[in-house]
Structures are given as structure tokens and as C-alpha cells.
Write a structure and sequence with these properties.
240 residues, alpha+beta, Structural Genomics Hypothetical 15.5 Kd Protein In mrcA-pckA Intergenic Region, Chain A, 8-stranded mixed beta sheet, 5 helices, 22% strand, globular
């Protein structure tokens, strides 16, 4: 038997709400959780990310922390059950924005207002809903609502502007958006199918496995991040 967490996640700063509810084993690492979030939300996993909880930030150690800052824990050395221990506890997952299209609808860029450069990342709120026993350790999406935004819109501000555009009555597509903006021809912001998500989870779920990156940290940097993680967990759980 496995202890499985039921987690909810919603994308901040966008209305109507984009949300998912899914199951994942408590022993999975934060890096495993990152992989599952990418699937259940519908992201492409091509940008950086980080978790934030209890004053600590977690990510995969890199040669250069860049925008993550200098003090960071190793998400591959921290299990979900270490940071979420009771229902209603929350943590934040931030997925970096990919930038904005070169030209906004009808070829107009908001250079005068500066809106084209005022990017915000995709910030998600994760909540522990319940803990349960299960015979399966394979993550599963239980429910959800609305499609994941196309990454090309550069954050919630760009996507909100896209949603505010009038739709073509015949096709449902937003008027004034040129092709080539990374928007699938059949994109429907109201659509979400948990069955397709679960088929992908069954096919791809391999805990502890991730893609190698040219930015992966040196062993020394990994050890430093792991030490920071252990120190943080000892603070949370005395005697650990």
C-alpha cells in the first residue's frame, strides 16, 4: 500500500479558473511532482521552474541559478511528504514564461505602454486536499477545468488579453490573432480531457527520471543544494 496525496492546483491570476485535481504518491520527489504538473496542466516543459514553500525555494541545481537566486534547495532530494504534511497546506509552483509574440493581434505591439515587456511567470497554487491509501503509485488526474494556455503568450497578462478578443462565431478562434503565434488551430480555452492526461501519465510515469540538461550543476553545487534541503527539513521536522 502507498500513501497517496490528493492535490489541487490552479493557475493564479487568470479567470475563469484553470485548475486540476490529481493523485500522486507522498514519497515522490518535488522533481517528480514537477513532471506530473507539466502533464496534468498541459505545459511543454521547456522553461525553468521552482517550488516555494515555508520561506524556502526548491529547483534542480544548475551551474548558474540565474533568476532563481542564490539560496535554493534541491528538489530532487526533497519528497512531497516532507513539505506537505496535513490537509490545506499549500505551496507555490512557478513555471517561467516563454515571452510574448513579436506582434500582438493584427500585428500591433504595445511598445508605447510597455505591456510587451512586462512579463509575469505562470504561478500556480498547490493545496493538499486529502491523504489516502492506494494500491497504485501511478499519478492520476481526477478532475480539472479549462485548457492550459499556449506558452507563447508570455504569462497571465498576455493570455488574459487573448481571452478578451472577440471570437469568430463560425470557428471559435480569436479574431485578429495571426498564425504562427504557437496557438493550435483547434485550441479551445474551455476544453479539458482528463482521460488523455491519464493515458499520458501511465505511459510516461517513471519516478526519479528526468531529462539531462547542459545547465546541470556540478557535483559540488548539487551537494550544496542537497545540504540546504536537509537543513530546511530538519527545521521542519526536529530530530530528522
Amino acid at each position: 500500500m502507498y500513501t497517496v496525496y490528493e492535490l489541487s492546483i490552479f493557475l493564479d491570476d487568470i479567470a475563469p479558473l484553470i485548475w486540476r485535481r490529481f493523485l500522486i504518491p507522498a514519497h515522490a520527489t518535488l522533481d517528480d511532482l514537477h513532471q506530473v504538473i507539466q502533464v496534468v496542466m498541459g505545459w511543454d516543459d521547456v522553461q525553468g521552474h521552482r517550488f516555494m514553500t515555508g520561506g524556502m525555494r526548491f529547483a534542480l541545481p544548475r551551474r548558474s541559478h540565474g533568476r532563481f537566486g542564490q539560496v535554493i534547495g534541491n528538489e530532487d532530494a526533497c519528497r512531497i511528504g516532507d513539505v506537505l504534511v496535513k490537509p490545506k497546506q499549500r505551496m507555490i509552483y512557478v513555471y517561467d514564461s516563454a515571452g510574448v509574440p513579436r506582434s500582438w493581434p493584427d500585428g500591433r505591439a504595445d511598445r508605447a505602454s510597455g505591456a510587451a515587456t512586462a512579463l509575469r511567470d505562470w504561478r500556480h497554487t498547490i493545496t493538499l486536499v486529502a491523504m489516502q491509501a492506494s494500491l497504485s503509485a501511478i499519478p492520476r488526474c481526477v478532475d480539472g477545468g479549462r485548457a492550459c494556455p499556449p506558452e507563447a503568450f508570455g504569462g497571465p497578462d498576455g493570455y488574459s488579453r487573448f481571452l478578451s478578443l472577440p471570437a469568430d462565431p463560425a470557428t471559435g478562434r480569436r479574431l485578429g490573432v495571426r498564425s504562427g503565434h504557437g496557438i493550435p488551430a483547434d485550441f479551445d480555452p474551455d476544453s479539458f480531457q482528463s482521460q488523455a492526461v491519464n493515458r499520458r501519465l501511465v505511459r510516461e510515469w517513471t519516478p526519479g527520471q528526468r531529462r539531462a540538461s547542459e545547465h546541470d550543476a556540478t557535483p559540488t553545487a548539487v551537494a550544496a543544494a542537497s545540504t540546504a534541503t536537509v537543513t530546511y527539513l530538519r527545521h521542519l521536522i526536529p530530530g530528522r
